Amino acid sequence: MSNFLANYDGKGRLYAAARRPYDSSLLDATIKELGLSANSQLLDVGAGTGNLGLELVRRGYRNTIMLEPSSSMIEVATERLLELSQQSSVVGARIAQGSSTNSGLPDQSIDAILAGTAMHWFPVAESIAEFARILKPSGKVAILYTGTLESNRPVVNEYEELLLAHVPRYKEHKKLLFMQSGLRAVSECFIDNMVPIDGPIIDRNFIKEEFIQWALARSFMPADEDSRRNIGPILGQFFDKNSKQGVLTLSFSSGADVGLLKKLKVQPEIKDRVSTHDRSS
C-alpha cells in the first residue's frame, strides 16, 4: 500500500483538475436504488479529492464521510469542502484519513457505502470484512465507474502502446482484473443481488493541455514532477497526431452497480487478481 500511495504524493491538484463530475442522471439512479434519505449516513470510500462525496453533500446528503488514504488527495478535498461550506451548509460532512480495510468507523454506523471509480483498488476479502463491520444490517453498496469505449480502439491501442513503452507501472496496471475483464467484474466480487445501472456515453473534447493533464493524473503515472515532465512531450506528440483541429475527442462509458455486500468468502486467488493496492484511481 505504501508504494501505491507514494504514487499520489503531490498529485492531488492535478487529479482534481483532470477529473470530471459524475453524470447527474447516473447519480439520480444510484441514489434511488440505494433508497437514501436526507438522514442517511454515507461513506464515500477511496474518495480522492471529493468528486463523488462533495456531490452527495451538494444534493443534501450532509452526513457523508469521505474516506481517503492519500494526504495529497485529502488536502485538496478539504479545500473543496471549505469552498462548498461558503455556498451552503455542510454540517455533518467530513473528510477522514483511512482505507477500505481500516476505516476507523464504529460498528454498524453506515447506511450505504459508495465508491467512485475506486473499488478496483480495494483488497476484496479484507475490504468486505471491514464493510460488513461498519454497514448497518440493511446497508447497501454502490460502485460507480467510467471507462473508455471500444469505439475508440484505434486511438486507445496507440495510447496503450505509448504507456507500455514509457510508463513502467502500466504493465502492472494491465494485470488487474478490471483491465482484463471490465469494471463490472470487480463489482461482482463485492456485491450480491446486483442491480446494474448503465449511465450515458460521455464525449469529452480535450485540447492539448487538458489531455496531457488528464493523462498525467492517471494512477499509473509517476508522482514526481521530473518524471511527469519527461512524459509530457510524448503525450503531446500523441495528441498532435490524433487530434483534429486542435481537439482530441474520447468517449467514455459510465455506470453503477448497486446491491448488498457479499457474504461469501472470497477466494485468495480472486482477491489477488483484483488488486494488490488499496485506493482509488
| Overall pLDDT | 87
Q: What coarse outline follows from CA principal-axis ratios? A: globular
Largest sheet features: 8 strands, mixed
Rounded to an integer in angstroms, the radius of gyration calculated over CA atoms is: 18 Å
What does this structure look like?
- Helix content is 44%, strand content 22%.
- The two termini are 13 Å apart.
- The C terminus is likely disordered.
- It has 281 residues and is α/β, with parallel strands linked by helices.
- The longest helix is centred in the C-terminal third of the chain and has 18 residues.
- Strands 1, 2, 3, 4, 5, 6, 7 and 8 form an eight-stranded mixed beta sheet that branches.
- The chain has a domain of 195 residues: Rossmann fold (3-Layer(aba) Sandwich).
- The chain is globular and about 55 Å long.
- Helix 2 packs across helix 5 and helix 11 crosses helix 12.
- It contains 13 helices and eight strands.
Short description:
By secondary structure, the protein is α/β, with parallel strands linked by helices.
Tags for this model:
281 residues, alpha/beta, Rossmann fold, globular
Topology at a glance:
Layout: H1 2-6, H2 12-18, H3 24-34, E1 42-45, H4 51-58, E2 64-68, H5 71-85, E3 94-97, E4 110-116, H6 124-134, E5 135-148, H7 153-166, H8 169-173, H9 177-181, H10 183-190, E6 191-198, E7 202-206, H11 208-216, H12 225-242, E8 248-261, H13 268-274
Parallel strand pairs: 1-2, 1-4, 2-3, 4-5
Antiparallel strand pairs: 5-8, 6-8, 7-8
Helix pairs in contact: 2-5, 2-11, 7-12, 11-12
